[in-house]
Amino acid sequence: MKKLCTAFGVLAFQLSSASAFAQVATVYSGDNGSGTAVQLYSQGTYAMDSGCGPVLGLGASNVLGFRPRFIQLADGYQAKLQGWHGNPGDTHCAGPSYSQVPITCTNSKNLYDAGCISSWVYDNVGGAVIIEKVPTPQTDSSVLATVYSGDNFSGKAVAIRSLGAYAMDSACGPALGLGASNVLGFRPRSILLAGGRQVKLQGWHGNPGDTHCAGPSYSLVPSTCVNSKNLYDAGCMSGWVYDNVGGAVLVE
Questions:
Q1: Which pLDDT tens digit goes with each residue over 35-93?
Q2: With bands split at pLDDT 50, 70 and 90, how would you rate the model's confidence at 145?
Q3: What does the UniProt keyword field contain (predicted)?
Q4: d(Cα 140, Cα 204) in Å, to the nearest integer?
Q5: Which of 48, 80, 167, 248 could be bridged to 172 by S-S, CB 3.0 to 4.6 A?
Q6: According to the 3-state scheme, what is the secondary structure of the chain?
């Protein structure tokens, strides 16, 4: 009961003290947006376990008091679970390990559902939820590309740190042998790209062997169409390709 009261106390505090700020996330203790709900109005670290708050140097307004099962995120933000992953230096509350919550596992799925967070991590992690803005190549040198679902770098966003294929269509992930961390779940409309990298759209182009998810065809995104333009603008992708391709973004 103490944890339940703590969570409601946090909610009341945050609603009364931060109502003037945009909401960046809501975390729930139950499945499908049920149970105790805590609204977060700023990025940062929020302890799941009340005992981890002091260990992490967090005040009462940054202690959830429960392990979230469902998270709603505002556009342009991402969530991580920090704590025990069984790697050197990990503790129940902190350590160097974290699990990125795939964008396809926020707003519509529970965190422990298939393809989301490892069930072992979910069952054992007790540290913190980290809410942060999705980084870009301009703000984090380890990011190779940041892809957006909306025009002019708006909407849902995913930071890509490794070369390879990233499925646009969730159904194409398994078809291409990609795990949850390589599924965007949307067709990008704008891309920020690091210097020295290029991006292609793979999938249906109407050529022999093409399928919705893959095939021999791809379209190279012109360098003039990243960092400043939307992918479907004049001189960028063929409108037919952009409307029909559902396969993958290739960062190389």
A1: 999 999 999 999 999 999 999 999 999 999 999 999 999 999 999 999 999 999 999 99
A2: very high
A3: Signal
A4: 33
A5: 167
A6: CHHHHHHHHHHHHHHHHCCCCCCCEEEECCHHHCCCEEEECCCEEEECCCCHHHHCCCCHHHECCCCCCEEEECCCEEEEEECCCCCCCCCCCCCCCEEECCHHHCCCCCCCCCCCCCHHHHHHCCCEEEEEECCCCCCCCCCCEEEECCCCCCCCEEEECCCEEEECCCCHHHHCCCCHHHECCCCCCEEEECCCCCEEEECCCCCCCCCCCCCCCEEECCHHHCCCCECCCCCCCCHHHHHHCCCEEEEC
Number of CB atoms found within 10 A of residue 108's CB: 13
Q: Dump pLDDT digits (tens) for 167-189.
A: 999 899 999 999 989 999 999 99
- Under the banding of pLDDT at 50, 70 and 90, the label for residue 22 is confident
Residue from 54, 29, 58 nearest 42 by CA: 58
Q: Does residue 159 contact residue 146 with C-beta atoms inside 8 Å?
A: yes
Q: Provide the pLDDT confidence category of residue 161 given band limits of 50, 70 and 90.
A: very high
Q: Which of 139, 135, 126 is nearest to 159 (CA)?
A: 135
Task: Return the residue matching tokens 């960092």.
Answer: 227
pLDDT recorded at residue 131: 97
